[in-house]
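// run 5 | inverse folding | seed 20
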């Protein structure tokens, strides 16, 4: 089996590559399984699925990443094998995108108050999508010369606890898990170590239907991966992983397929999808052992 990457973003949310271009890059990078998990939108899935037909060796998993709020931070819930046409899910994501725009405008107001004005029209132009996110604001700040790197925007201005941070409309991790389950998907807690106390949340979300943890992730050390694998085993969850690739900053991002996700992660995720008879489950390829 080739490389696995179950956490990728396109221009449908806040990535640099179009869905079709992302699929092409994934195929060229030697991926055998990929998932598109754009923030709060599934608009990129149809063109990505169409593009994936040109690469028989590449299995494509439709996904989404739902951003939620917790005390003193954020939690992201990934959904795999979702029915991306499910009306309730589409309505939920639409409301979240509207909230994103309101949040972004409030952040711009705060930035202006501290002497860093940005034009809303330029942020929208950079985003070129309804799913406006903080990376788009960070890019506008970089253009203006207010920062020297995209990461600086978060650490000094728009990250949690910083002067221009604005919380989203409240959506809980449990809400996200339930939305994914109702859309016939598999909910996984994304990059759990961004949560100060992940284990209590894991216990709570497991009771709500969580099926996995993202253990293999951009920048996680061997010790951190081991900790998350142990937590997954403790609570009967599968482990997934991915690069969280956006294509915005080559100096800091993990490249497509380089998060060292083991084949077992894709195998377990696909097996669970088959067990639950979910739609768009990749075909098994006996030559690769799954």
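// decoded
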């Amino acid at each position: 089996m080739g490389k696995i990457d179950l956490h990728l973003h396109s221009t449908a949310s806040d990535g640099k590559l179009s869905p079709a271009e992302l699929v092409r890059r994934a195929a060229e990078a030697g991926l055998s399984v990929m998932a598109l998990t754009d923030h709060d939108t599934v608009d990129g899935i149809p063109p990505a699925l169409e593009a994936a037909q040109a690469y028989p060796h590449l299995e494509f998993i439709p996904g989404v990443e739902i951003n939620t709020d917790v005390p003193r931070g954020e939690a992201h819930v990934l959904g795999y094998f979702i029915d991306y046409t499910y009306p309730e899910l589409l309505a939920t994501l639409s409301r979240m995108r509207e909230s994103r725009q309101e949040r972004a405008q409030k952040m711009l107001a705060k930035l202006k108050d501290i002497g860093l004005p940005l034009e809303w029209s330029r942020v929208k132009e950079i985003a070129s999508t309804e799913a406006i996110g903080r990376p788009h604001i960070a890019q506008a700040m970089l253009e203006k010369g207010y920062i020297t790197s995209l990461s600086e925007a978060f650490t000094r201005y728009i990250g949690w606890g910083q002067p221009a941070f604005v919380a989203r409309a409240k959506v809980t991790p449990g809400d996200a898990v339930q939305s994914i389950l109702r859309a016939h998907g598999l909910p996984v807690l994304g990059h759990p170590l961004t949560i100060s106390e992940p284990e209590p949340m894991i216990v709570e979300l497991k009771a709500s239907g969580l099926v996995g943890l993202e253990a293999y992730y951009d920048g996680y050390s061997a010790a951190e991966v081991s900790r998350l694998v142990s937590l997954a085993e403790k609570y009967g969850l599968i482990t997934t992983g991915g690069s969280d690739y956006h294509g915005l900053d080559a100096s800091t991002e993990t490249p497509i397929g380089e998060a060292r996700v083991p084949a077992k992660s894709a195998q377990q995720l696909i097996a669970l999808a088959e067990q639950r008879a979910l739609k768009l489950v990749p075909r098994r390829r006996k030559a690769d052992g799954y």
